Amino acid sequence: RKEVEQDPGPFNVPEGATVAFNCTYSNSASQSFFWYRQDCRKEPKLLMSVYSSGNEDGRFTAQLNRASQYISLLIRDSKLSDSATYLCVPPGQLTFGSGTQLTVLP
Amino acid sequence: ETGVTQTPRHLVMGMTNKKSLKCEQHLGHNAMYWYKQSAKKPLELMFVYNFKEQTENNSVPSRFSPECPNSSHLFLHLHTLQPEDSALYLCASSQENRDVNTEAFFGQGTRLTVV
Q1: Residue B53's pLDDT band (boundaries 50, 70, 90)?
Q2: Do A45 and A87 contact (CB within 8 A), yes or no?
Q3: Among A64, A84, B18, B48, which one is least packed by beta carbons within 10 Å?
Q4: According to the model, what pLDDT value does residue A94 have?
Q5: Residue A37: Cβ within 10 Å count
Q6: Is B47 in the A-facing interface, judged by CB distances under 8 Å?
Q7: β-sheet with B64-70: strand ranges across
Q8: Long-range CB pairs of A16-19, under 8 A, 24+ apart, other chains included
Q9: Which of A31, A43, A51 sits opposite B107 (nearest CB)?
Q10: Which chain A residue has the Cα nearest residue B100?
Q11: How far apart are the CA of B103 and the nearest CA of chain A, in angstroms?
């Protein structure tokens, strides 16, 4: 089993929609996990860091389910500028998932 | 934000050339990483350095040789590469503690083309 698995998408959603991504992991070694976004041909940039079971920042909510070993990212009221690839980094790992591609359509 | 700086940004090299990629971080972090990202592929972790010591080498071919002279600098020496090594090479740094891994900060990457 891969260390990290993500639904690659693509997710094509209309502007204003709510969209959620999941990321499953096979190993848990620490308390923190992260979501990054990566724009085309650019480096990944941190979107949210979470040091407990969840975190909310404006339109973005990240949650950790330790029992089922997955982390999720919820985006509300999608904007065109949210179009990117979203990468998860599970607890205690340095490897990234394959990323989930999101396109928000006008 | 210039916390992690990579040079050069673009590099074209022949299969017989020797070149080096450079990464410098100004964040005071104790861990640095090299990742490779081929077109439409996920990030692949290549090397990990903690406190200047290499702690991970993910079966990377010997034509890639990392060097970490101090906690702020990381190099990737390249020689006799193959066309399939063409990719975006990303450097990252973070502050590693025993129980908590902090977020990684990435450089803008070196886009390498092997001809």
Answers
A1: confident
A2: no
A3: B18
A4: 78
A5: 20
A6: no
A7: B4-7, B18-25, B73-79, B64-70
A8: A16/A77, A16/A78, A17/A78, A17/A104, A18/A74, A18/A75, A18/A76, A18/A77, A18/A78, A19/A74, A19/A75, A19/A78, A19/A102
A9: A43
A10: A30
A11: 7
Q: What is the mean pLDDT of residues B22-30?
A: 95
Does A27 touch chain B if contact means CB atoms closer than 8 Å?
no
DSSP letter for each residue of A10-50: -EEEETT--EEEEEEES---SS-EEEEEE-TTS--EEEEEE
Structure tokens at B36: 């490779």
- Separation between Cα atoms, residue A54 and residue A64, nearest integer Å: 6
Q: Contact at 8 Å (CB) between B110 and B10? A: yes
Q: From the list B99, B106, B111, which residue is nearest A44 (CB)?
A: B106
